[in-house]
Fold:
Amino acid sequence: MISKKFEGIAASTGIGIGSLYSIKLESDFILRESISEKEVPKELKRFENALKKSIKELKNIKQRIEKNRGKASAIILDTLILLLKDNELIETIKEIIREEKVRSEWAIHLVRLKYERIFEDFDNEYFKDRINDVNDALNRLMDNLKSRGIKDKEIPENKPIIILADDIPPSEMANLITRENLKGVILTKGGLNSHSVILLKAFEIPAVINLKTELSEIYDGTEVIVDGIEGEVIFNPSLAIKKEYLNKKEQYEKYLIELKSVKTLPSKTADNFPFKIMANIELPEEVDLALSFGAEGIGLFRTEFLYLFSDNEPTLEEQEKIYLTVLDKMNGKPVVIRTVDIGGEKKSAFFSIDDEDNPALGLRGVRYFLKNPKILEGQIKAILKSSKKHKVKILFPMVTEVEEIRELKEMTLNIAKAEKIERENFDIGIMIEVPSAALIIDKLAKEVDYVSIGTNDLIQYTLAVDRGNPTVNYLYKAINPAILRLIKMVADEGKKSGIEVQICGEMASNPIFAMVLLGLGIRSISMSPIAIPLVKRTLRASCIKNLKRISKEALNLSSADEVKEFVIESFLKSCPKTLFENINLIKK
Structure:
């Protein structure tokens, strides 16, 4: 067989070599099977047994992961376990069984459809991937009501293997990655923010997703190389190609050892200039993962999960417990809690938002809650109550004018006064994610303790580009000079006004962009936990004097492509050789 190379998306860096093994999840069509009234108790018992077995299986998988890689790598299993312990989810299934007198499979099917409807209109990739977690938890219930899924005994044990599949749910992936002979994963579908991909990254298993090819002529047992650095897969490599990749694999593994060593090193540039590197998290269970990668704080704790999976408002006690969990684990390190950012692509049955012609420019963020303040007041109260033990930073999204932050401040201070919470226990901040906020930063800075630039939306709104639209997302470029000028404007005014300016968008997760941000005057950056070691190592090898000079010159260039070419060329000249010993990793 002739060697064949195909392209996909690099999802987990590294080089994996092994024999191909393809797997396919069974997906039986679900029929509505009715039962009699007297069969209902027996069916409920059947469901409860499947539920108990599912939770036990997930706990066992979690224990195996913890044994191999520690608690941080197993936290994604907690998400699935919590879903199966969610009272509303389970009671909804039981109620359908009782009221409609149907088998458990049909009740689970109806609940699955409910959540798919909630998430179907989301443009945000993160929220699209969260429905995979719900499906995974429900599929495990199905697994234990009837036979389906991946079986361990089917997978070879005596040789290195590369798994090929359309997609793999997190619980099945967690089961697979504990196998010592798993050397790589190829998915024809999947998302970069999926929990399956996060697990692969945590276990350092090379992976390529969204492989663009017809694989009908690729057979199990074929030797395959997974290049998770370039995003390529080579089937039936020649001896020369295999030798080339074995050398690349050795070089990468040496580099990885050095990269991990930065975790305990000071966050300072080569010329001793300090910076702060923090993590963005979606769920409280991700705190351990963030700490394991060396996060110095939580720069963005998104709280949408409290509302998007429920038809009911979380209680004050439930919220306070979640916030305290994060604050306790961070143990005095800064924690930024963003109030729920609803609207746009983020919808929930709990919030009544009419369909809008242009939801991205409609009733979202604080715009919704200033019209419907009761829910926001409850969340602010819970955050403030948690601040009695640890200082907390409250972050309000989608603020576009001074009047909004003044109203939000008044609301917060009134609640703090009523709860007898000292002002020093909390900071009030706003996200700078629309051009209007950046342009009046001198006015907004007088009203807040800090600001956090949300580059994801700032880029989208400034360039008028929907990053989720494949026909125009090629224009979504983080280092467009217009974006750099807005960031510079905010950084300069923050310094002048004496307030901290943070970056909480994913722009900071690219080491090249992170260096530009430091040069523009940003001192605190937050990103996905997994990106922290590479960014920190890159910044530590840089000199602030060079970063300032290069970033200043970049502001005067005409396009994003010019900026990127100039920045990379300049950094290659001015920074130590070790900084770019693997240029492919940091250009992505």
Summary: Residues 456 and 505 are 5 Å apart (CA to CA).
